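Supplementary notes (optional reading)

For those who missed the lab, this is the record we used. Protein: Proteasome assembly chaperone 2. Length: 282 residues.
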Amino acid sequence: MEFTPVEEGKPFSPECPTLILPALSIGNVGQLAVDLLISSIGARRVGYLDEPSVLPCVGNDAYGPVPEGDLALPLEAYASPSHAITLIQQRSPVVKGMMVEFAKNLAHFISISGKKHVIVLSSLSSGRKKRIDTSGDMQIYYISSANADGTDGDCENLGWKRLDEYDPCQRRWVHLKYLAEGNPVDEEMPSYEDELFDEDYYPGLPFAALFSCCKAKDLKVTCLLCYCSEGDNISDSFQLADAACKLLGVNPNNFHGNGQSGWIMPLSWKTVYGPPADMTLF
């Protein structure tokens, strides 16, 4: 993985020890939440990441306030020195079969960049949820490297629940840890991304690879997760971004934006689901 700074010779914001990034999954909630955070905290693009395992893509400027023709690329790095936060936005998926390799490369880059705390934002399929929450509020789940069992006192104090399906002794989590530590592929184990049993679903997701590889580099890593379905998940992204702010002690009400509670909605969201339906059809 190669970092290309916007300003030649400048490293990836060593004065900002916290990094937030998405893990691609159902509903793209993690990506939407990172978009919202970049726009709201006024983060500026400081570089690009070149990674062969990420599919190429290109688009117009995502944040505005007006489209200026600046190209958006698959992996971009942003920084907000006033909040001591850096962010990486991933806009396209990883080549099938390369997720662990991608996570290892990214974890290595994060480590040498001097980051201390990595926050991974992602979503889980609501079809996998074992208990239905009738409260109406979205529950945030987490796993953390703070303790061996994935618990974290700070997350518990915020009312979040550790992901029950995280079991560091389960065979796929053990195998993922084995790979993250740089060991060779065990030919007798099924492919990491092949789903075999229900308990294999969670360690087969991108957030699990990022968690395991960052943990293997002795980085503090916290995964913030929510259940969702495919569709318009903008409301979910607000809650996931808000959870990241709570963990970092940042108050979104101070953003003074164009959305709810001070959030600044990205320019690209105006067309994320296309134009409204022609009401003359109804």
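If you only remember one thing from this example: The radius of gyration is 19 Å.
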